[in-house]
Amino acid sequence: MSDVSPDPRTPGSAIPDPGAARTAGMKTETVVVEVKDLTAGYLPGINIINSANLVAHKGELIGIIGPNGAGKSTLLKSIFGMVKVRGGDITVDGASVVGLKSDKLVQRGVGFVPQTNNVFPSLTIEENLQMGLYQRPKVYAERLDFVTGIFAELGKRLKQRAGSLSGGERQMVAMSRALMMDPSVLLLDEPSAGLSPVRQDDAFIRVSDINKAGVTTIMVEQNARRCLQICDRGYVLDQGRDAYEGTGRELLSDPKVIGLYLGSLGADGV
Amino acid sequence: MSSNPPSNPPAGEPVVPEGAAAQPEPTPTGTVTTATGSIRRPKTSGLAKGDSVPGVAKNDPILVIDGVTRRFGGLTAVDVEHLEVPRNAITALIGPNGAGKTTLFNLLCGFDKPNTGTWSFDGKNLSGIPSFKVARMGQVRTFQLTKALSLLTVLENMKLGATGQKGEGLFRSIIPAIWRKQDNEIEDKAMDLLQRFKLDAKADDYAASLSGGQRKLLEMARALMSDPTLVMLDEPMAGVNPALTESLLDHILDLKDLGMTVLFVEHDMHMVRHIADWVVVMAEGKVVAEGPPETVMEDKAVIDAYLGSHQDVDLGVVTGRVAGELDASAEELLEEIKEAEEASIAEAEEENK
Asked: Which residues of B touch A270 (CB under 8 A)?
């Protein structure tokens, strides 16, 4: 990702991006998350992930795409300690995290946003954000500033119940909650799911902003085209294996990937 | 699929609509082929009595909605003045997130009660009728998140969908003679439907073992067990593998051929364009446009509100990750997002006062 141009957006643009200027310098060769020959699954004898490999460097935005049932969400969940690992290794900042429970992973700087049911609907936005920080309540004010820098509208709605929000706003609350712990890597499971087109674009831009603020991000997406447009590198998962890997642009223009996973429908507009 | 039409066409199959214009008119090119979804079947045209404006009267409405509102606290989720759903046609309900589509669905099926308003199905007033009675009247629905009973087999799930079972009741249930014959008939019908939906091989598996797409199929098949007149599908394509969508589309088109009326909520524009005869667009609880898909989808207001006229925009450029010029369309997109955010902030500040 060497072709990062200065942010072309106008100063009045909707989304503040605290890290825009740093972006180019942020990506390094330091490996944050590495998945090696991972095998994992839910039911005995049935592996969903079959020796999958993935590397995320510091500051990178990684996209994972692939057909239904390819194991995209399962891969994310196994990194976050929610699926039993049967073989291979997962490291975060160089140390193996296999067998660790999710709360330990949060302490090690991993944030996870599930696809559905990702907010506490009966709690207010403020309480939702506090839930994200229950392991380190003291830094609340500071983290709140960071989060509302990206999601300004949430800052104005802190007392509102999360259940009364629209789908797009709930997604923002869920992402914000994961960001409260100042994670070094953020795992997003289909941040655009169930959103209308403009809201999807909005969500992708916010994900990009989060990444620009220095958070290494691994995103699983159904909207492959949009995902590959913003990610630095992408992985195409098929039957639990990483079938293709490349920069977002390479995958976008790879005829095999287009034929298999992007589909020709998306190319001709709506 | 419909090359072997089921032996038992749905009871209450609507009679031929009076308005001749409401009949499916095969286009010169359109042979009615159901072998694959790629061959377009003729759309039903001439459904409305007048111009395509919100609330236009239909020649033969099956569902008529008047002044239905539903408020959650300060938020008006649904505020539909007047809406008619045409019979024996496929009507799509589209709109941005939070437009009130699913809420309206819940109201129509009796899952939720409106603050005001009345609506009628097939001429019968439905206000205040609970959901199970609505279903018995021939109006069934499916859910966005499938509600299969995972620890029953696929066949058992199907059999639950049949109505008027004689074995219902503690005493009758212990005398097989009362219900065995009917039970066999129901089972035959269930297998018949499973075959059509290519789930027959899975009949004895637990519903929990089905994939997301197969669950959608099961839910649709189960809804058909009660021989409905009106089938309401809430996002039938959500989370379904693209490879399965085409056969799902085919099944929905088959429903129309069998004389049923379909009303569905969908985000997938390909699907709407492909199968819908009529499209109703909702935004902020109101019906903002309706008409045949081609007309509605070219409506500038609809495109801006929903479809996103920005499919061509490269988000890589927008986010500054890839070198490139921001074109007018990208500027518009950013403007729209900014407006939405400002509106949200303004609204919140208003409420905080």
From this structure: 269-270, 273, 297, 307, 311
Share of chain A above pLDDT 90, in %: 56
CB of B209 within 8 Å of a chain A CB? The answer is: no
At residue B146, what is the residue type? T
Task: Please indicate whether, in this complex, the C-beta atoms of B341 and A153 are within 8 angstroms of each other.
Answer: yes
Is B9 an 8 Å CB contact of chain A? no
Answer whether A9 sits within 8 Å of B326, measured CB to CB: yes
Dump strand ranges (E) for A153-232: 185-189, 216-220
Contacting residues for B140 by C-beta, under 8 A, at least 6 apart: B223, B226, B228, B230, B231, B232
Q: Flag whether residue A168 sits within 8 Å of chain B, measured between CB atoms.
A: yes
* Angstroms from A104 CA to nearest CA on chain B: 31
Min Cα separation B19/chain A (Å): 33
Phi, psi of A260 (to 5 degrees): -85, -45
Write the DSSP symbol of residue A47: -
The two tokens of residue B351 are 């409420």
Contact by Cβ (8 Å): A13, B338: yes
Q: Are B61 and B87 in contact (CB under 8 A)?
A: yes
Question: To which residue do tokens 């500027």 refer?
Answer: B331
ipTM field: 0.73
Determine the distance in angstroms separating the CA of A107 from the nearest CA of chain B, rounded to an integer: 30
Most confident of A232-246, B28-42, B336-350: A232-246
For residue A233, give Cα distances in angstroms to A187, A227, A240, B34, B313.
15, 10, 18, 41, 20
- Torsions phi, psi of B125, nearest 5? -70, 130
- Reduce the secondary structure of A2-17 to three states and give it as a string: CCCCCCCCCCCCCCCC
pLDDT digits (tens, 9 = 90+) for A150-208: 998 898 889 988 888 877 888 899 999 999 999 999 999 989 876 777 788 899 999 99
